[in-house]
Amino acid sequence: MTADATLAPPATGAPQPKAAPAPGALQIGPHTVWPPVVLAPMAGITNAPFRTLCREFSGGQGLFVSEMITTRALVERNEKTMQLVHFDAAETPRSIQLYGVDPATVGKAVRMIVDEDLADHIDLNFGCPVPKVTRKGGGSALPFKRNLLRSILREAVGSAGDLPVTIKMRKGIDDDHLTYLDAGRIAVEEGVTAVALHGRTAAQHYGGTADWDAIARLKEHVPEIPVLGNGDIWCAEDAARMMRETGCDGVVVGRGCLGRPWLFGDLVAALGPGRTGEGGDQAAARPDFAAVAAVMLRHADLLGRWLGDETRGVVDFRKHVPWYTKGFSVGSDVRRALATASSLAELSDLLGSLDQTQPWPAHADGPRGRTAAGKRVVLPDGWLNDPYECAALTEDAESDTSGG
Fold it and tell me: Would you call 403 helix, strand, or coil by DSSP?
């Protein structure tokens, strides 16, 4: 990426050849990840089309994880879930994030991935803060139950064979129930390859400021495996600064790339060979509106091709419009029309009606996506009574669908 006002369209062919890994490249089992950057799984966002865009802008470098896959839905071969676990031929390594609360079901899902060669890397979700997940004891609620966490990790790692298993988690349920240090130690003991920490509690949801000091403490606590940091990475310099300040081995980027898949190109420029990250953001892409509109149309087209229907693709793309257009001058009438567009032609006409020469807005570089703090964390009855034991979770603790 360059600091030019325009943004070159993503390549449509095979990804660029990967450069030789720099010292400090992230090692996930047999997979060398350089630069040490991971796309965070986001429900309804990190599907194959979005991963394609991010991967193209990075030149094929980094690790791009699928949106969350529910283990029960995978084992039962839910139609939507089976589409979500399909990877493009250019994606390597193929990375799936699983969510589950029952060790036996998690084990079945992992064995299915291995037996059917569905992925090259498995990440387990212990960080989701949404009520529909935590009220069943899943996501960021689960690490509070240390024995259950250990059982799930043991089953997953034991079933994975040569596939590396990693986990993503939060600091804990709230400031009175922090779990990340215990969870990190359990992960090491059960053979997990790497651990990613979002520096917020479930109670914070996406509000406030991420606690990077917690990432540093976790790195000190589990020096045996790579620790990845997540939270408040809005530009490439944020990623470099997190690595300098915390000593973490890599970063996980989520909301910062919403409406900005080219951020992964910025990260390659900032964290590439010979780069320390200082001043890396000076090389960040600053596309004008014409370049952004071109990426928007490509994103919508990729979604339509993936879903097998142009209208469904454009409808699914609508949620991305506010992120791509943040800070640009878009009148209320056009904004409303974009929110109801149902064809590529309509989307193209609406975007073409706007001033294509608008420069990248300086104030568009900050927080993106959800930023409000969450309310009380919804948990199963009596969940906080004992950090080790819990009543057996019922089958309905796992959804039979995945993703958004």
Answer: coil
